[in-house]
Every structure is written in structure tokens, then in C-alpha cells.
Amino acid sequence: MKLKDLARELGLSLTTVSRALNNYPEVSDDTRARVKRVADRVGYQPNIIARGLAVGEIGAIAVMVPKESTSYLDPDTIEFLVGIAEVLAPAGQDILLVQSSRDESLETCRNIIESRRADAIIICYPAPVDSRVRFLADANFPFVVYGKSRTPVAHTWVDIDHRDAAFRSTAFLFERGHEKIAAIEGPVQFAFAEERMAGIRRAFDQFELPPCIINDTFCDYTGYEHTLRLLRQASPPTAFVYGSLLSAIGGGRAIRELGKQERIAVVTQDNGVPYLSPKNILPRMTMTSFPIREAAKRVAQQTIRMMDVNAAIETESWKPRLISIAQSGRD
Q1: Where does the HTH lacI-type domain lie (predicted)?
Q2: Confidence of residue 20 (pLDDT cuts 50, 70, 90)
Q3: How many domains does the chain have?
Q4: Fewer CB atoms inside 10 A, N or C side of the chain?
Q5: Which residues, listed in sequence order, are joined to residue 315 by a DSSP beta bridge?
């Protein structure tokens, strides 16, 4: 049975029947119950495409992730997508995964809207000032940003407080007597890296020391290479701050290779990816920890909310915990 047949059986419009089946609040409880009762009796199974045409919805949300030169999705992004799916799937929304570079991201947004490929857009890891935010706001198209940027447009975003996490990580090491601290952070084209660098510089300024910050792609190899090079200097760092557990794993490998695991302190950001264990780095490790999957769930919930024409702008910044490996309870 098709949706129009069910509507004819009920004596209702296609739009009313579709909205009742999808629990829209403007449909009365009595009508919703009647529609679902008849649908169950006749064995109606919804056709996703037909439903979208009937109510002007596609049934998919586009998730825009950066396209790096490595052309792969890192574990944090995969964990983020898992969290998104846990919320969107029960809501009847599919994920349209879109990878785009900085140069093509604005055109990608325009294509998504004009081709009606999605009902809303989630922007992951925005630029410090992101042109997509203004474009989507001007287009009055539903969107949520995973990340806090300096884009001067009111919009809904959810993020971890990267500035506070990086400040606390660096200050933690200074307070324990370390004066030569190196920070291995992410690419400067991302807002979160800018936020983390601001937090690190604040800690260095507080202790009146010049900052040492290296920006590169988060991966095992870059963490290893930068850590190895710095430790081979005449006056090497005694502590490292890593913006990603991936970089910290590589850095830990370099530290062990040089036999300095008992003399080097490490603080890293841990996003709670189940198959990446902080214990693979160093026994003397501390971390700022926040599960990225939980952040993703909140992003998905906010995206569904923003699809309502009357949805208000909301912003959320969550503070990670500063914990030691012994306290983390992770295997």
C-alpha cells in the first residue's frame, strides 16, 4: 500500500497522514493514533522518497567533514559519526557524509541546498572564521556547527572548551616544575586549534615563558617526528602537550625509543575513542578527557531541533575533565 492509498482509506490529506506517522506536534493525538492504528491494520510500510516529497523533506542530514591531504577519516571523526547516527537513525534521518576542502566547502553547501540532498547540515571542525556559517544563515537553512569559531553570525554550535582544556594542560605541567614544554597541536585552519593555542599561550604568559607550539595534522607519524626532533635538541623539552591522542601515541613512541619515558611528562586530549587506549603512551600520563560520542549526540539533537522553523539559537561549551591515567578507568 502506498501513502496515497492510506490517505484515501483514512479520508485525510497526504501531508496530514505523513506528519501523523512521523509524530509532528501539529497533528492532534487523536488523529495520530487513528492514522497509526489504520496503518498497522493494513500493513502499511512507509516509502522514504514518497514521504519526503509529501512533506517537503529529504530524510537525510549532511555531515560536512574536512578533506585532508591524507584522505582518510580519523578515529575521532568516526566516533563522532557513530554518536550522530545513534540519534538520527531513530528519528528517521540518514547521514549524508560530505568531505570537502576549504576551497570547495562553500560551493558544497550551495549544491546541497540547491539539489535538495539534505534537510539540514552539520559543519564539523569549522575554520576560525567560516564563510559557510554566514551563507547558511543568510539562506535560512537549518544547520549546527560542531565547534566554536569567531564567525560574527548568530548560530547554534556545540563544542568542547578547547581553550580551557589546553590552558589547564599546560599550567598543570608548569605547576609541577616543568619550564621547557612543547605543544603539538592541530592545523591552524581549524577553530579548535586556534582556541587551544590561545589557552597554551595564556599559560606560558602566566609563567612568563616563551611558547613552543607546533601545528600539524593529528596522526601517529607527525606526533612521532616532531617529538623525536625536539628531544634530540641540545636543550630538549621535559614535557609535552598534545592536542590529540593520535599525536600523543606517536610522541610516546619517540619518547620510549630514546629511553626517556621516566623523565618526560605528557598531557593529551582524549576523546574517548574505545579502541585508542591512553595506556599505550606512557605510565606518567595525564589527560583532558571528554567523550566525543556524547558531544555528537548533542549536535544531532540540536540539528533536529533547528529543523523547526521557530527554533532559537543555542550555544554549548563543555569542559573536559583533567585526569590521570590511573583515574581514567580505561583499558
Answers
A1: 1-55
A2: confident
A3: 3
A4: C
A5: 157
